[in-house]
Amino acid sequence: MNTKDILAKNLTGNKNLSKDQIENINYELLWYLVSDYFKPNEIQSNGMTKKEYMIKKFPSEFTKYVKDNPEIADNYLIKRLLTESKKVNNTEFDQITFKNIGSLTDIDRSNISKAWLDLYESDKHTKFAEKLIMYNMMAYGFHITPKSFGYLSPVDYFARLNEDGLSFNDKLLELQETTDTGLYTQFINQFLRNNWKNEFYVPSIDIENIKDGKLDETIKLSKKVHAKALDNGLEGAMFITIKDKEDKTLYRLDEETSKDSKDYTYVKDTPLGIKNISKEYAFEEPLTSVFASNLPKVKKTTKKITRI
User: Fold this and answer.
1) Do the beta carbons of residue 155 and residue 113 sit within 8 Å?
2) Is the distance from CB of 218 to CB of 267 less than 8 angstroms?
3) Which end of the chain is more exposed for a tag (fewer CB within 10 A), N or C?
4) Which H or E run includes 189?
């Protein structure tokens, strides 16, 4: 059984995957594997992780760089890119997007990739072109959307990547065929946290089924209730959401505590990515979201001053 077979079993239990779902999982698995090359958790000189820097800082740097280097304004790639301001779930950020002005012809795609490669091979703009590739991987991965442009990245760039004597393609093939449990366990964790609002993968249970009916950091869920709510062949879903009216809260199964108990114990967890905007992956590493809306809200405390 290879990684993809194990993924399907652990993600969906006895439910059948559609063609589109299989394609989506393949894209996200590839994204996760490729992150091994781009090191999203690597700390930069500015104290940020590479992922955080790319998402939060690079879009404004991109705008400034193009303005400060007018010689690239007519580059076939640069002409098709723009920076847009976004606000999702009270999180504000800029995003580099592709100008969607209709279907691209094969000639268009070839010209854009060549223009990108020209920037990469130039003496002056190599780092800028490479950052654009990294930004795409951090923001969009391999998903093709009207706003993404990673699929236009120059093939030559990836062809030159090498790790432990293996080419980029050979390394990916090796990782996809491995049965190492650590590889797919971390991917499943990140996949479910990125897709936590999709009830096909992360089932949702009404708050009335929770003992005490409170969304504490740790909650108990009767295995009998769990089995009734989750008719998918999974003995304890790895993640669930608790639905309270229109709101959902993400919880992760505490397998050790749940093992010999009549209840499943779930611990509150944080989502990754923002739906339809960006997803977050880091190869075989724990991952914290760079989007503030995914993180626990910090309660403000007021110090009580006693006057004497």
Assistant:
1) yes
2) yes
3) C
4) helix 181-194
List the one residue out of 263, 269, 236 whose CA is nearest residue 251. Answer: 269
pLDDT in tens, 241-295: 999 888 899 999 898 888 888 888 899 999 998 877 788 898 877 788 888 778 7
Helix, strand, coil % (nearest 5) of the chain?
A: 45, 15, 40
- Phi and psi at residue 129, in whole multiples of 5°? -65, -40
Within a 13 Å sphere around the CA of 245, how many CA atoms are in the beta-carbon half?
Answer: 0
Supply the pLDDT for residue 229: 60
Cβ 228 vs Cβ 199: under 8 Å: no
Distances (CA, A) of 8 to 29, 101, 262, 265, 282: 12, 37, 27, 24, 20
What are the strands, taking DSSP E only, across the chain?
81-88, 91-98, 162-163, 166-167, 204-206, 218-222, 239-244, 247-253, 263-268
CATH number of 181-294, picked from 2.60.40, 1.10.10, 2.40.450, 2.60.120 = 2.40.450
Size of the chain in residues: 308
C-alpha distances (whole Å) from 136 to each of 34, 89, 139, 153 are 12, 22, 5, 9
Residue 18 backbone class (left: φ over 0; alpha: ψ -120 to 50; beta: rest): beta
Domain boundaries, the chain: 16-177, 181-294
Helix and strand counts by DSSP (H, E) for the chain: 11, 9
Q: With CA atoms as reference, report the closest residue to 87 among 269, 291, 308.
A: 291
Q: Letter for the amino acid at 209? A: N
- The residue whose two tokens read 């309660």 is 299
Take residue 152 and report the two structure tokens written for it. Answer: 């236009």
Residues 6+ apart with CB under 8 A from 191: 7, 11, 25, 28, 29, 32, 201
